[in-house]
Design a protein that fits this description.
The complex is a heterodimer of chains A (517) and B (145).
Chain A lengths: L5 E4 L4 H5 L2 H14 L4 E4 L13 E5 L2 E5 L7 H6 L11 E4 L4 H4 L17 H6 L4 H8 L2 H11 L11 H10 L6 E6 L8 H8 L1 H15 L3 E6 L4 H16 L15 E6 L9 H8 L23 E5 H13 L1 H5 L2 E2 L2 E2 L1 E8 L5 E6 L4 H8 L9 E6 L6 E3 L9 H6 L8 E6 L4 H15 L5 H19 L3 H18 L3 H5 L1 H10 L11
Helix pairs in contact in A: 6-10, 6-13, 7-8, 7-10, 9-10, 9-11, 10-13, 17-18, 17-21, 18-19
Chain B lengths: L4 H14 L7 H12 L4 H11 L3 H10 L13 E4 L2 H4 L3 H10 L5 E3 L11 E3 L2 E3 L4 H12 L1
Parallel strand pairs in B: 1-2
Antiparallel strand pairs in B: 1-3, 3-4
Classes of the chains: A alpha/beta (517), B alpha+beta (145).
The complex binds flavin mononucleotide (FMN), iron/sulfur cluster (SF4) and FE2/S2 (inorganic) cluster (FES).
The site of iron/sulfur cluster (SF4) has 14 residues of chain A, from helix 18 and helix 20.
Chain lengths: 517, 145
């Protein structure tokens, strides 16, 4: 009976559902029933080709055939065209894996995302899950830390700190209660990779966390998810209970004697809680005020105990590193940026979505080859790279190679890998003003330059925009930026000047100055 | 809806108990109370402070720090409009102005994780993408019915 049934995939990812995937899935099920056809409909994660969502896939002997973007109006014609056999239709895209956007990626961290049923443990194992964990359970903590160090993995949350070195510090702390915290606050605008992973392959994050626990001697983990991601919260909670039931969490994981349990916590709408010390305060039930480092969390973190805080993608990259070895992973990338990075294309872009590829690809390749320019059809004016604290890069800078060091050299930063495209018509003075306003809204209030300086910066930009004493006010703004850069305790205040000053530098004409030569 | 003060108090105490009255669970507790009540009434905050054995000042400090928590009911449908950069690039400013002009109260969100399919909005915790003025009206009409 199973063989006769058709297998179909309609993403349950919240981005896909934001443009109608739920209704499409419902309608397909209904129409199949009306026509007396038995279908097995799987709600997978997204493949990351978000402009094609809702992307419906049909399992055929040749592989999965894709149709998209599908609306409820298309379903009758899809059935009529016999799409269940992968037949042609105006929305047919051929084999999913052959779509260039997908085929040209190097999917390591996201290897399973969009392919498996997110909460099916059998699927997870069939597609390479748990191999890394089983190797880790058979290895010593030192060996795990060594492998992660050798892989060259650096934190994907923004700062790019080597993950293995952080783990080593926590491992070296005396035995006792230690914690692993997955940072799923993903506050940077223009980023959504953590969300896609949590909704599409939640077990991968759990596996990374259990391995981290084994590596440093921690028995409790927290996943701190922003409240803007209610679906991810739900999926991760269900994933945790499935793993508890399967004895992949608990006091004797997979019969190894290793103990580890995970709790899912939800944030409450504060960007600053993505900063690690603020996140720890929040996990303790307090205001998310930044704390001075040292002590670093790996020595004194949650409830005063040694704590590893890693971004979702750092942790989710660990299973494949353990499974395939450090050499396999560090063969990807260039310089001191090893492995792959999940770039996220957003804003005014024709083909927005998730592109996981080795470090070293250029911004131009990402935006023009993958992204195919703007959605509006206008010319691109700038890309903001690395979130709200990242630089605005002009088109002249698009040959920048995307790795930690090269981007820093070019006066930009990788951050969490978000790339937001703006087309002609964007007013860069308004964007600079927004950066100051965002800092005002999200400042934790601890240091004066950030708390007061952001308000002053916003007011000064208002004057510049109104054409009042422009040169004088630009000078004042520059001084304010310097104060923010030097006098801020964390990167919220410290990096707010980045979007502001890059906008002024590359687009002086928007600030009442003469355009660059 | 729970009517009387003792009933409400019992419910708050029960929620705190479910979290073992641990101060570290404060944010979870506040979320739960707000979900059930629609906002965080003063009485509830006092009850939570008592149950967790923390000061009232502490709890107000937390409630005012986080953007999610509100001490008064919402004026209408729970509508969040993304005001962050990727949505700005595709016209979220117009969308927000449209909502204002049509008296749809909303709160600003700074990224809803739908940056490739902006402008993004969230209504009652459900995400929507490529939302222009017409689509927003339509969605709100569906919710209002
Ligand atoms: C204002 C601010 C916001 C941050 N937001 C996030 C975030 O949303 N997610 C994240 O993983 N890291 C964020 N970080 C970085 C964290 O402080 C920390 O470096 C990171 O979680 C460490 O994990 P990693 O080494 O795996 O990157 C933020 C930092 C700052 C200063
Ligand atoms: S820079 Fe801003 S956000 Fe960071 S600690 Fe200071 S006041 Fe808080
Ligand atoms: S910037 Fe609007 S959803 Fe991300």
């Amino acid at each position: 009976m199973d063989q006769a049934a058709f297998t179909l995939y309609v993403p349950g990812d919240s981005a896909a559902c934001s443009v109608g995937a739920d209704a499409v899935a419902r309608q397909i099920a209904e129409m199949a029933q009306n026509r007396g056809i038995e279908v097995k409909l799987i709600r997978n994660g997204t493949r990351g080709m978000l402009w094609l969502e809702p992307l419906v896939e049909v399992q055929t002997k040749q592989g999965r055939v894709a149709y998209g973007p599908v609306t409820t109006d298309d379903i009758e014609s899809l059935f009529d065209a016999n799409f269940l056999h992968g037949k042609p239709h105006q929305l047919a895209l051929g084999l999913t894996e052959d779509i260039p956007y997908f085929a040209q990626q190097q999917r390591l961290t996201f290897a399973r995302c969009g392919i498996t049923a997110p909460l099916c443990l059998d699927d997870y194992e069939t597609h390479g899950g748990l191999v890394g964990l089983r190797k880790a359970l058979a290895a010593t903590p030192q060996q795990i830390v060594e492998t992660v160090t050798q892989s060259g993995l650096r934190g994907r949350g923004g700062a790019g700190f080597p993950t293995g070195i952080k783990w080593k510090t926590a491992l070296e702390q005396p035995a006792g209660q230690k914690y692993i915290c997955a940072n799923a606050d993903e506050g940077d605008s223009g980023t959504f990779a953590d969300r896609i992973l949590m909704e599409g392959d939640p077990f991968c994050l759990l596996e990374g966390m259990v391995i981290a626990g084994r590596a440093v001697g921690a028995s409790i983990g927290y996943i701190y998810i922003r409240s803007e991601y209610p679906d991810a919260v739900k999926t991760m909670r269900r994933a945790v209970s499935i793993w508890r039931e399967a004895k992949l969490l608990g006091d004797n994981i997979d019969g190894s004697g290793q103990a580890f349990d995970i709790h899912v916590r939800m944030g409450a709408g504060a960007y600053i809680c993505g900063e690690e010390t603020s996140m720890l305060e929040s996990l303790e039930g307090k205001r998310g005020q930044i704390k001075v480092k040292p002590p670093i969390p790996a020595i004194e973190g949650l409830f005063g105990q040694p704590t590893i805080i890693n971004n979702v993608l750092s942790l989710a990259s660990v299973p494949i590193i353990l499974a395939k070895g450090a050499d396999f992973y560090q063969d990807f990338g260039q310089g001191r940026s090893r492995g792959t990075q999940a770039f996220q294309l957003g804003g005014d872009i024709a083909r927005g979505g998730l592109v996981e590829t080795a470090f070293g690809i250029t911004l131009r390749e990402l935006v023009e080859d993958f992204g195919q320019g703007t959605r509006s059809g206008k010319a691109i004016r700038t890309v903001q790279a690395g979130g709200p604290l990242g630089a605005y890069v002009p088109v002249a800078g698009f040959d920048m190679e995307m790795d930690y060091e090269k981007m820093t050299e070019a006066g930009a930063m990788l951050g969490h890998g978000g790339l937001v495209v703006f087309s002609e018509g964007v007013n860069m003075a308004a964007q600079a003003r927004f950066a100051m306003k965002f800092c005002e809204v999200e400042s934790c209030g601890k240091c004066t330059p950030c708390r007061i300086g952001s308000v002053r910066g916003k007011e000064t930009l208002d004057k510049i925009i109104a054409g009042e004493n422009v040169e004088q006010n630009l000078e004042l703004l520059d001084e304010l930026c310097e104060l923010l850069t030097k006098g801020s305790l964390c990167a919220m205040g410290g990096l707010t000047p980045m979007p502001v000053q890059s906008a002024i530098k590359h687009f002086p004409e928007d600030f009442g100055r003469e355009a660059k030569g | 809806m729970l009517a009387t003060r003792p009933e409400k108090q019992n419910r708050v105490r029960q929620i705190c108990k479910e979290h073992n009255a641990k101060p570290s669970a404060l944010i979870e507790i506040l979320h739960q109370v707000q979900d059930e009540t629609g906002f965080l009434p003063k009485d509830a905050l006092v009850d939570i402070a008592d149950a967790l054995n923390i000061s009232r000042a502490d709890i107000y400090g937390v409630v005012t720090f986080y953007h999610d928590f509100r001490q008064a009911p919402l004026a209408g449908i729970d509508l969040k409009i993304c005001r962050a950069e990727a949505c700005q690039a595709v016209g979220s400013q117009n969308l927000a102005e449209h909502a204002k002009a049509n008296n749809h109260p909303f709160t600003d969100a700074y990224c809803l994780g739908n940056c490739a399919l902006g402008p993004a909005v969230m209504i009652d915790k459900k995400l929507y993408g490529r939302v222009d003025a017409d689509r927003l009206d339509q969605l709100l009409k569906q919710k209002g019915e």
